Amino acid sequence: MPMLALDDLLLARDFSSISDRALRHALDLAARTGAALHLLHVEVLHEGDEQHSPAVGLEKIRSELKNDPRAASADALDAVSIHEATERDVSAAPAILNYAATNDIDLITLGTHGRRGPKRILLGSVAEEVVRRANIPVLTVRGGEDATTLPVGGVDQVLVPVDFSDPSREALRHARELASLYGAEINLLYVVEEALHPAFYVGGVSSIYDVEPDIEEKARTHLQTFADKTPGADVSINVHAVPGRAAASILSFVEEHDIDLVTTSTHGRTGMDRFLLGSVAEKLVRHLRCPVFTVKAFGRSIVTDGE
To answer: Distance between CA 176 and CA 171 in Å, rounded?
Structure first.
């Protein structure tokens, strides 16, 4: 049977309240899996960074988690092995990726400010760059006042957007093991793109529903088959099909169904292709209030076959 193979987890810290929120998730996940937790602080050149130990405030956060009845046990939290590191670089994302590669990290966790508009275009997002370039899974935790305030251990509902591709199957494999870890159930979601290509407009046909009025029912049937044929932990899986555009429909579904964690695949586009087409995964990282677990389409998996 597949199992979650997580030995080394990296948490990138900048000592903001956002990275502290990410640290809570990373510490809880490390405690549940027995993984070692690497705390990395990147001193970006020419930014006048203050000198801090990467583990500053760790014990306070560990104590808070011990008082959360839905987090990992106190013994498991105490048993987490901590490794501190500080790196200097011209920007944060390359330093994070280099540390992950050098130290054989299985999963990167970091907070994201969820910037929008011109500021995001000019400054970019460290989290989005890491998600785009990493060849291992990345867990991003959103900051800001509108971010989720659920207890770290309170993962009841996991969402997996599916397009029936091999990458989305890999996302479901990871989601099965994460749902088992937290005692959660999975929601598989397929978004029906209603608009047809203009070539189909002859005869007044402009919607997929004109061609296949029962497409949502068919999609749910395919989703159930997709779930049944994807190996993994035995967890409850619900299937959903909704009309709309991928990113917007996923965002709405998360709000309407109180989703605690989204697991998705990303193709990791770069350059002009990514700029023109965008990335659904990056939009989710930027806008979702709940944590987002991204799996690279052709990257390394942390789900392995085990006895």
So the answer is: 9
